[in-house]
Structure formats: structure tokens, C-alpha cells
Amino acid sequence: MFNLIGKLDVLTIINNKALLEVYSPQQISAQVMTMLRSYNNGITIVQVFWGLWLFPFGYLIFKSRLIPRVFGILLMLGCFSYLIQFTGAILLPELHIPSFVGLPASIAEISNCLWLLIMGAKDPSIDKPTLPA
């Protein structure tokens, strides 16, 4: 959430008429682009935390058997896809990691949410209640 301050600052610069009179359009454009790049850098750093939490979450889903195990495997793969994207952006920026590397994380997170919303987590060890006759 702290990263969103940069986007709010961009709106502040663009909407401030006093700044538009003092600075040239090139200076304002440079400030705006710097703030937007800063926001992008913040998202890159946050990808580490987005990725690292997926591994234990995926492992718990894999072990619990309350949700299909394939979601747990996809979440653990998603952990590595986030970390690959981060490593590529920080250590090898000239490499340009393709966007499909993040596909396992996207598929896992969306399918897990949909499964929980539609099917829910069901414990197979609990018998279904029966109505008295």
C-alpha cells in the first residue's frame, strides 16, 4: 500500500496548476516518469513476498486434501515463477523474462479462489449429516 503513494504523487503533480506554470513540460514529464518507474520498482520488490508466501500455502493445500492437490502444486510452482521474474528484473534486466513465466502463479491463484468460492473446502472424513426418519 505504501507503494501507491507514488501514483498519488503523479496525480498531484499533474493537477497542480502552480507547478505547471513554474516547471517546463519536459521537467514535469521527467518527474512523472520517475515516479511511475519508482512504482514499478516497488512492485518488482513486492514480487518476492508474493512469491515466498505461495510455497507454504501451496504445501498446506497439498497436504490438507481439503482442496485438490493440483492447486497446491501450482501454487508452489507459482512461488518460483514470481522469484524468477524478480531475479530477472533485478539481476538480469537485459534478459526480459517472458510474461508466460508468471502463468503458473496466475492460474493457481485464480483457480484456488474460484474453487473456494464455488466448491468450498470439504473435509472427506466428516460424514454428511442424515435427517432423522
Describe the structure.
The protein has 133 residues and is an all-alpha fold. 71% of the residues lie in helices and 0% in strands. It has helices at 5-15, 17-22, 25-64, 69-90, 103-118. Helix 4 (69-90) runs antiparallel to helix 5 (103-118). It is elongated, with a radius of gyration of 22 Å. The protein starts with a helix and ends in a 15-residue tail after the last helix. The model has no long low-confidence stretch (mean pLDDT 86).
- Radius of gyration of CA atoms, rounded to a whole number: 22 Å
How many beta-strand elements? Answer: 0
Order of helices and strands: HHHHH
Count of separate DSSP helical elements:
5
Structural class: mainly alpha
Molecular shape: elongated
Q: How big a fraction of the residues is strand? A: under 5%
Q: Distance between the terminal alpha carbons, to the nearest Å?
A: 56 Å
Helix content: over 70%
Low-confidence stretches: none
| Residue-averaged pLDDT | 86
The largest sheet is:
none
Explain briefly what this protein structure is.
By secondary structure, the protein is mostly helical. It is 71% helix and 0% strand.
List the helices and strands and how they pair.
Layout: H1 5-15, H2 17-22, H3 25-64, H4 69-90, H5 103-118
Note the main attributes of this structure.
single chain, 133 residues, mainly alpha, 71% helix, 0% strand, elongated
